[in-house]
Amino acid sequence: MMQSREQIIESAKQVFISKGYGEARMQEIADKAGINKGLLHYYFKSKENLFHAVLKEVIKKIIPKLDLLIKSDETLTEKIEKFVTLYIDLLIENPYLPGFVLSEMNLRGEGFMKEIMQDYDINPIKLMVQVQMEIQAGKIGNINPINLLINIISMCVFPFIARPIFKEISGLNDDDYLQFMKTRKKEIVSFTLSAIKPQIYPIG
Fold first, then answer.
1. Distance CA 133, CA 136 (A)
2. Is residue 25 in some structural domain?
3. Closest residue by Cα to residue 188 from 83, 106, 93
4. At what angle do helices 145-161 and 76-93 cross, to 10 degrees?
């Protein structure tokens, strides 16, 4: 290949970030990578296949970090803080991901994520046990660990999925909106920790 696979994927990633998946064109990606469009189609067949390659590269970088965090001996608070930071930073670097993944899951169902995640094996059991132990110790309220994870992911992802709406409401441009999301990390962590505090009711 005239250009390495990594260089082509990086060029495609830059175009997807600047144009979004829907507006990205194979010709522009080929130009960015310094190859002709025919050669790009020869190796990746379609824009969807190329995007899948980009997506797998992104996941390959983030999954080991998440797996190490889940299995670490850090406190639940530290894990929540680092998880939110990792996840928001990932989405800031790849703001097109949530919309594409949601669209593909609606079209192709669970098979899409199984295909993407087939090379990885994340086991959240240690995190689930840690949450249950903190509940039993009275350190946090009685929350289902799955609900806790869903709540955190939802607060991180939804502002990226609904970015056009929030940009219109706030009047922020793309750069300012992504900068706003950097400051939102602390808000998500603070809100989550407040929500899982044990409930103390007055006696009498």
1. 5
2. yes
3. 83
4. 20
Q: Note whether residue 3 is domain-resident.
A: yes
Closest CA to 130 of 90, 83, 88, 89: 83
Segment 95-154, tens digit of pLDDT: 878 877 777 777 767 776 777 667 677 778 889 999 999 999 999 999 999 999 999 999
CA distances from 199 to 54, 80, 121, 148, 188 (A): 44, 20, 35, 16, 20
Co-location of 86 and 157 in the same domain: yes
- Whether 52 maps to a domain, the answer reads no
Q: Which residue has the tokens 């194979």?
A: 26
Which SS3 state, helix, strand or coil, does residue 118 take?
coil
145 in the same domain as 86? yes
Domain range enclosing 74 = 59-195
Q: Is residue 6 in some structural domain? A: yes
Tally of structural domains, the chain: 2
Domain co-membership, 37 together with 100: no
Q: What is the pLDDT of residues 32-65, one digit of tens each?
A: 988 888 888 888 989 988 988 888 888 888 888 8
The domain that holds 23 is classified in CATH as 1.10.10.60
For the entire predicted model, the pTM comes to 0.80
Burial of 128 (0-12, 13-18, 19+ CB in 10 A): middle
Left, alpha or beta for 180 (phi > 0: left; psi -120 to 50: alpha)? alpha
